[in-house]
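Annotated sample (chain length 424).
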Amino acid sequence: MFWAVANLIGLQDEFVLKRFYEPSLLSRCLMTSFDYLTQRQQSLREHKRFRNLVARQLDGVHVIDPDGRRLLNFGANDYLGLGMEMRGNEGRQDGQSLGNADLDSRVTGGSGASALLSGWTTCHERLSNQIAELEETEAAILFPTGFAACSGAVSALAEAGDLILSDELNHASLIDGCRLSRAECVVYPHRDWQKADHILQRRRQEFARVWIVTNTVFGMDGDLAPVDHLQEVAEKHDASVIADEAHGTGVLGNDGSGLCDALGVKNRIAIRIGTLSKAVGSQGGFVAAPRVVVDHLVNHCRSLIYSTSLAPAAVTASLAGIGEIRTRPERRRRVQKLARHVRSELSIAVANDLEASVPIIPVVVGTDPRVIEVSAQLAKSGFYVPAIRPPTVPEGTARLRISLSAAHETKMVDELLFAIRNLM
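Output written by the structure step:
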């Protein structure tokens, strides 16, 4: 151990080591090298922003805290209740079964290799084909996570000499993709498509290609990107939209493929990213796009090439989830109805009925200590509603984030609303 540390700090000369070495000094080097992290974490604690992992048990629409409390779960992104169902728990909606997904629970273990080696199986191929059919694209490619899909696709497509226009509230995975690319990135105000248009009017001629990158449904506010207007801007300036449908897949659209379908631009936005980890009820991510784009990602996307491919269990769960989305529209109608009900009862303003149907509902509290207190009080009343604080959301907008599921009964939701009203 001593020689390893000595090599790390550049003290390879034996004579120097003999004169320099003092156990107390070397111990201090080992013990204090991360003091700056300790100081930063102490500051987070003082500002009520330090976050811990809490090992909870999942039990249908409930979570069980380490202290044994059984709480109604309003903190997950399992919008259609498929994840609960696939874990062997029956989802209920007002006393009626939501049905059973076609899932082979015998499939376990990992894929053992990256997709370009032996990690792309016939099941992976089948899932990618089904996603391409749902998205009505030439092809689709699978990623081990949604984060890997977003960061990898953006960084692989945008190059030096390109321009990226990125919404200021985009997900961290998209932001990281912009940073990893060698393109210039300009952040435009949230949902401000006119600003994006103005930027391109002034600067389009400076760049070989332009990419407009946006979430379709924003995960902390539950509001919608104007992807129809953004696509018009893209067509006007010879640009391409990359739309992340993480919170739209399975929930919005006539066919459940997301906001692009709901706004009638699905066949005009060529590159759409999605996750298998939310409404689909499994885990992983995908990019649906023209074949030439998918082939480019297969050959150049580092988060795909250098990652072990999606585990077979996740693939089979995703196949079941995609099948449910395509054949059981009542699931998304159910969660949309609950979302409209909650927004109406809490008097949360939205732009239109489509936005009202998004199952992500923020209740802005303001300060960090207050939102932690309200979340704790709700837990005492039997509800898990996470407190979201900066830097995830802007300063002064700490909030409760209510995530609804088709598995929630109306009675459960009304009990939550009653508890919130008594605390706010």
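Annotation: The mean pLDDT is 89.
Annotation: Residues 115-327 form a domain with the Aspartate Aminotransferase; domain 2 fold (CATH 3.40.640.10).
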